[in-house]
Amino acid sequence: MSERLRLTEREIDFYKPLIALYLKYGSVDQVFASKYHNTGVSYPHFHRVLNDWGIIKSTGPQSHFTEAIFFLTTLAMERLPLESLYRTMPPSLQISAATLHRILSYIKRGLTRRHGTALLVSPESDPNSILIGRDISTPRPELGKPYGSLSLPMTYAKRTESGKESVLRTLQQEVAASLTVNRYLSPKIIPDNPKVLLTINIADVRVKVYKVIVPDTLIPQLDSFKLSDLNLVPIEQVAASVDLDSHYRAGVSEIASGFLETRAIQPPFTPHFGSLLNQSLATLPTIG
Fold first, then answer.
1. Domain count of the chain?
2. What is the pTM of this model?
């Protein structure tokens, strides 16, 4: 294990903008491609800084997943073969038809190839409300992706990591950016072995869902580079919006309804749900 860095206050202030960029982009390469790439900080040293800061590193870019979700939602609503819809897409579409076919193949077989984390974040005084924000990634109206789809905090996860690491990554990147940059987010708010409330398949991602209770004093300090307008919403309200044409990102309302369905009975095993998106895509033709 490398020796822990001993950063001066001046060095901490210097690295804060870089940490913020990492939380924004989720990639060291993109940080170095930004306006800070001429500062003289080496790749290995910046990785050491991230480790010293307690950052749980990203498992990969989420831009293609977001694009895939909106494309597949349009596919499910239009009830078209994938190739037929793909041919109508503009050149700005970045995800390839081959990748979409691979995702659809997994969906049809009920399989997943990646792992994800979603959080139900509630204040201590109101455990029946959860934190919802607006996705502020680039709008793509031509893909049916308007600005501001509503979402829970969600990120990719590693299959081999602990639940605490998965939850902390999601908090850092989607809920508590400023607290993380300023080194005020304590991992102690997460149990060592957080309980998985349920799992759900969204596209080709198996998502584990956790409940996180945060002190009321932290709620006004929460912010994110990925989700804007963070607000507490009654979980029943979120659960009532299960529809492909909902303002919520695919799977979010199903997570809320699944939590309400199972929280009273406390099943001896982790309940699993399928998203409406996956159910709708399972019977689509693949050639057209």
1. 2
2. 0.90
1-5, 8-12, 34-38, 167-171: lowest mean pLDDT where?
Answer: 1-5
Q: In which domain, by residue range, is 172 found? A: 113-271
Is 123 a domain residue?
A: yes
> How far is 182 from 159, CA to CA, in rounded Å?
29
Q: What is the pLDDT of residues 78-102, one digit of tens each?
A: 888 888 888 988 777 788 999 999 9
Residue 93 tokens, joined: 């579409």
Q: Is residue 251 part of a domain?
A: yes
Kindly list the distances between the CA atom of residue 102 and the CA atoms of 99, 105, 111, 257, in Å, as whole numbers in the listed order.
5, 5, 11, 29
- 64/187 Cα distance (integer angstroms): 29
- pLDDT, mean of residues 36-53: 82
pLDDT of 111 over the 50 cut: yes
In a domain, 126, yes or no: yes
CA-to-CA distance for 205 and 72, rounded, in angstroms? 13
Q: Strand pairing partners for 117?
A: 155, 208
Q: In whole angstroms, give the CA distance from residue 200 to residue 272.
A: 6
